[in-house]
């Protein structure tokens, strides 16, 4: 028996080695599946979290839609109002809204900055763009004809460059009811309305009375 074992000693060593290798490989493979199962769940959660984060960004990324209200305003230095821009005020405003749908804030601003507009407000409900226009530079301590709250008025330009209304009622000489001169009395007279917003050397005076009389003459012609 002992003699037989010695003769087959190498055979038993090889068998034992193979058995150990098979056990080790089997254990390693099982451990690999266990680890894969554990870390696989975490990976799924991580991917899900990233997906939710991406979805959240998309849901909150504001873009222009068919329901977004676009508003263009012009602020003249010689007027205290923000003027709604139209073809009478700004000829560059010829908008095909359909072509703007899908644009985000930076894209919209990039397009209209070429026309002098800056984006003041951008939400899913509305987009407000404003253009600042310096206009004619009236002399300090002078009076000039302008527009405020849809009426022709007389402004005074102070020495500190600020302006204020000093006469808000300019009677329309063509009416018997002594009503004020309004935008409706001006807007059909060529470029008069735009020139009153922008300013002109002919609208500047050294006293209120001369400014009022000239304003009335503009409306009566």
UniProtKB/TrEMBL annotation:
**Transmembrane portions of the chain:** 12-34
- What keywords would UniProt list here? Membrane, Transmembrane, Transmembrane helix
Instruction: Name the chain's protein.
Output: Bypass of forespore C C-terminal domain-containing protein
Organism of provenance: bioreactor metagenome
């Amino acid at each position: 028996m002992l003699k037989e074992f010695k003769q087959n000693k190498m055979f038993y060593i090889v068998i034992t080695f193979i058995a150990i290798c098979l056990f080790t490989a089997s254990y390693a493979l099982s451990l690999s599946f266990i680890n894969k199962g554990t870390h696989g769940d975490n990976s799924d959660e991580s991917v899900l979290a990233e997906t939710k984060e991406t979805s959240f960004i998309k849901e909150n990324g504001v873009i222009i839609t068919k329901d977004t209200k676009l508003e263009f305003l012009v602020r003249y230095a010689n007027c205290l109002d923000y003027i709604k821009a139209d073809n009478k005020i700004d000829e560059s405003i010829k908008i095909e809204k359909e072509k703007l749908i899908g644009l985000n804030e930076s894209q919209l601003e990039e397009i209209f900055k070429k026309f002098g507009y800056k984006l003041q407000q951008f939400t899913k409900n509305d987009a407000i763009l404003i253009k600042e226009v310096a206009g004619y530079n009236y002399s300090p301590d002078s009076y000039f004809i302008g527009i405020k709250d849809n009426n022709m008025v007389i402004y005074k330009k102070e020495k500190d460059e600020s302006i204020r209304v000093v006469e808000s009622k300019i009677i329309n000489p063509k009416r018997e009811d002594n009503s004020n001169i309004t935008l409706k009395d001006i807007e059909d007279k060529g470029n008069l309305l735009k020139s009153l917003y922008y300013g002109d050397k002919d609208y500047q005076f050294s006293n209120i009375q001369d400014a009022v009389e000239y304003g009335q003459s503009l409306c009566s012609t």
